[in-house]
Amino acid sequence: MYSSSLSRDRRGVSPVIGVVLMLSVTVLLAATVGGVALTATTDLDQRTPTVARSTGNFVTGPSGGCGGNTVAIRHAGGDPVPADELAIAVALPDTDARIVDLPVSGTALSASNTDDSDNIVYDYCVGGVIANGGKRWSAGRAITFQLNTGGGTVEPGDTIEVRVVHAPTSGVLAAVELTARR
C-alpha cells in the first residue's frame, strides 16, 4: 500500500510541473514582448496637447503694412501650448511652406524660421504668440502672419490650409481651411 501511494504522488507531480513551466514561459514571453514594445516608442512622457477648437481668417489686400494678406489662427479652447513648441504649415493650391523655430524676437522671420522654397510667407509682420518672444498659445490668443502674395498668388475665393503643429510630437493641434476674402 505504501508503494502504490508513492507512485500515484509521483504521477501527480509531472502535470503540475508542466503547468508551472508553461506559465513561466508565458510570463517570460509577455515580459519580453512588453519590453520590446515599450522601448520601440520614442517618448512615453511626451503627449500632444489638445486644442479643442480653433478658428481662422485670411483677408487679401495690398501687401503694404501688416494689414493685407494676413492669416490669423485663434486658439478657442483646450490646452495652452508653449510658443517654442509650435510650427505652422501653410499649403496653397500649388505650394507649401513651414514657419519653424518659434517664437521670433520682434516681428520678423529670419532664414532659420522658414522652410519656404517659393517664398510664400512674408518675412515681416508676424504677430500674436509667435512674435516678440511670445510665451503660450492659449484660449483667446492668436497666431498671425502675412503671406507674400505680390503678383496675385492668392485671389479672393482661393483656399489655403493652415496647420498648427506641436513640433516635439509632430501632432496637429489645429487644421484650418481658409477661403481668401477681400
Automatic annotation (TrEMBL):
On the tree of life, the source organism's domain of life is: Archaea
Cited InterPro entries:
Flagellin/pilin_N_arc, Pilin_N_archaeal
Task: Decide whether keyword Transmembrane is in the record.
Answer: yes
What Pfam family is a match for this entry? Pilin_N
Boundaries of each Archaeal Type IV pilin N-terminal domain copy? 11-92
Q: Which UniProt keywords apply?
A: Membrane, Transmembrane, Transmembrane helix
Q: Which residues form a coiled coil?
A: none
Stretches that traverse the bilayer: 12-38
Database matches in NCBIfam families: arch_flag_Nterm
Q: By what name is this protein known? A: Type IV pilin
Q: Which organism is it from?
A: Haloarcula hispanica
